[in-house]
Every structure is written in C-alpha cells, then in structure tokens.
Design goal:
Elements: E1 2-7, H1 15-26, E2 29-34, H2 42-52, H3 65-75, E3 80-84, H4 91-100, E4 105-110, H5 122-127, E5 133-136, H6 142-147, E6 153-155, H7 172-178, E7 180-185, H8 190-201, E8 206-209, E9 224-227, H9 232-241, E10 242-247, H10 259-266, E11 271-274, H11 277-282, E12 290-292, H12 295-307, H13 309-325, H14 330-343
Parallel strand pairs: 1-2, 1-3, 3-4, 4-5, 5-6, 7-8, 7-10, 8-9, 10-11, 11-12
Helix pairs in contact: 1-14, 3-4, 7-9
C-alpha cells in the first residue's frame, strides 16, 4: 500500500507528526508533504489573525504544498492520500488527484472541531465534500459536518504516540525541574484558569507550563508557579513527574476528551480529568483515573490523592495498562482507520 501523508511535521511534540509515524508503520511506501511554512508573510499574518477571530477566510499556501501534492500525484499512484487538518489545501488539488487517479481514497483527519468557524478556513470548507472519508475525534459534530457536505464521517477516540508518550526513568533533578504536587501543561482559558486559581487559593501548590496569558499570573499567588511552555521530551517527562496531572477540556471546542486524556496515563502520570461520559468510558474512575465535576470536587480530589501516595501510584499504573490493553495508541487506532477505508 502506498500512502501520501500531508500535514505539519515540525516539532517532536507535534501530534500530526506522531500520526505520520503510525502511517509509516502501515504503508509499504510513503511520501510526505510538510505543510509547515518556513517564513511567515504579512499577508499570512493578517489572514491568520482573521482566521483566529472565527472568519472562514482563504488561507495562503506559504509552503507551496498544493503544488508539491500535484507534482507527486502526477508522477505516482497512491492508494490513500492522508491529509491532516488541511486548512491550506485547496479543492482544486483534491480534484486534480481524483482526475489523475479516480480510485485513490482521499482521507481527512483533524484533532480540532472542524464544525466551528474558528477552526475552519475557506479552503477547508470547499474541500469537505471532496474527501472520501473524514475522521474526527469529536463525537458530537457528525451531523454538523454532514450539513457542511461530509460524505463519510467517522468518530475515533484520541490516541497517544508510544514512541513519545511512555514512562521514563526520571532523575531527581528532572523531578524537581518538571514536577510538583499538581501540574497543568497547556494554553490559558478562563475556565481552567479559574479552577487553578481556586486550588492555589485553597492551599494546593500548582505548577503551570504555558505561555501567553499565563504570564499575567506570575507572582499572582504564593501557591501558583507559572513557567514557560515545554515541548519535546520535557512534555512527556512533566506529565509523569507531576504527582497529579490536570486534564482540562477546551470549552471553545466543546471537547469531551482531548489528546492529554491519553497522553497523561500513557506517560505513567496520574490523571485528574474533567468528568464526561467519554472520559468515564475510556478510563474506570478510581482505578485508572480520577475525575471531577466542580472546583469543589477538584480541590477535594487533589487533597485526597496528595495524601494517598500508594493509591495514586496504583491508579497511574492502571491508567497506563488501560492505554496499552484498549488500543489507545496511534499505531493501533490509525491501523483500524486505514483498514476501515480499505474495506469500506
């Protein structure tokens, strides 16, 4: 099987790159088009700012990805063209592939809620009806995506990369630098910030790795430690080094699970996550993860598990085992997706 893999491939923490690694294990031959742009033009900055405000505008293709895809399709037949998010891929490119190779199956995957305007581009909207298959980790957008023209859309759970998210042997210096009682890694959002401030005001020491608006909270409270964002192996190490790793869901996307849902337990960390139906299906409460539904319950759970180390460690081991036995890895998940496409 020959696959053309398209997406942003920069940075070891990049989940798109992780999915590409999984595709490499499946394909007999694989070509790649990296949609990351080396230089950012003024036009792109303006377009991206409008895009950030939720306006579905046409994004410029600074990486020349569309041109590269057409050149590869001109020279090669691909069983599957896999496009990760694809907000700069143009509909003319997908039509070109189909004209050259009518039996090629064009697949879209995105880790974002692509039914919401702030995640869309005009390029992507025009491509939706042209995809043979669309996979999403948002169970609640299937009907909305169909209204936008999706022909075959399927929900899949989030997944972790076993080559990147796994328990390591941490030095005492790494535990001190990256760990702490309670930790969170990620972008600022009001709801998660309010929850963290609630913990800090009630005697829980919280360490946050994140930039942007988090910087406004440096030296804000004695129990709140704000550090710059971390990437690469430090990201996985920190998830393991925290006694409790918080898993917040992005309210702007209406998330019911997130990549950290899998990454925290896969790294051997203890996960305390927002309670949702999907979280409760993925991990058994009290043996594989812990959940909370309010700031009061979050505080109570933090106090309890900080005081019960052995129980906390046992649950972390249970979460790791669940990741492994339930097939939450990229390799297992994407293999099932490709099998679905090939046999549909």
């Amino acid at each position: 099987m020959k696959i053309l893999s398209i997406g942003t491939m920069n940075g070891l923490s990049n989940t798109c790159l992780h999915r590409h690694w999984a595709l490499e294990k499946i394909a007999q031959q694989i070509d790649v088009v990296n949609t990351s742009a080396k230089k950012i033009s003024l036009r792109y900055r303006i377009s991206n700012r409008l895009f950030g405000y939720g306006l579905p505008i046409r994004l410029p293709d600074l990486s020349q990805s569309n041109k590269k895809i057409k050149a590869l399709a001109e020279q090669n037949f691909y069983d599957i063209v896999w496009i990760d998010k694809g907000i700069t891929i143009n509909p003319e490119t997908l039509r070109f592939i189909k004209t050259k190779h009518p039996t090629t199956k064009i697949v879209s995957y995105s880790p974002d809620n692509m039914a919401l305007r702030h995640n869309q581009s005009q390029n992507y909207l025009e491509c939706i009806p042209l995809y043979d298959y669309i996979f999403t980790n948002k169970s609640y957008i299937l009907e909305d995506m169909k209204k936008l023209g999706a022909k075959n859309i399927t929900f899949v759970n989030n997944s972790y990369e076993s080559r990147f998210h796994y328990p390591r042997t941490l030095s005492s210096d790494e535990i001190k630098r990256l760990g702490g009682d309670v930790g969170f890694i990620g972008a600022w959002e009001k709801e998660r910030c309010d929850s963290i401030l609630y913990l800090a005001k009630n005697g829980i020491h919280v360490k946050v790795f994140g930039g942007g608006k988090w910087e406004n909270y440096k030296n804000y409270l004695p129990n709140l430690q704000i550090e710059k964002g971390i990437f690469s192996e430090d990201y996985s190490k920190a998830l393991q080094a925290f006694k409790i790793s918080l898993c917040f869901l992005r309210k702007a996307n209406f998330d019911q699970q997130t990549t950290r849902t899998m990454e925290i337990p896969a790294c051997g960390g203890f996960m305390l996550a927002e309670r949702t139906i999907e979280h409760e299906k993925l991990f058994n409460e009290g043996t594989e993860a812990a959940f909370f539904s309010s700031n009061e319950e979050l505080l109570q759970k933090c106090k309890y598990y900080l005081e019960h180390e052995e129980e906390r460690k046992k649950i972390a081991k249970g979460g790791l085992k669940r990741c492994e036995t339930s097939g939450y890895s990229n390799e297992f998940t994407i293999k099932k997706m490709i099998e679905f496409v090939n046999h549909a």
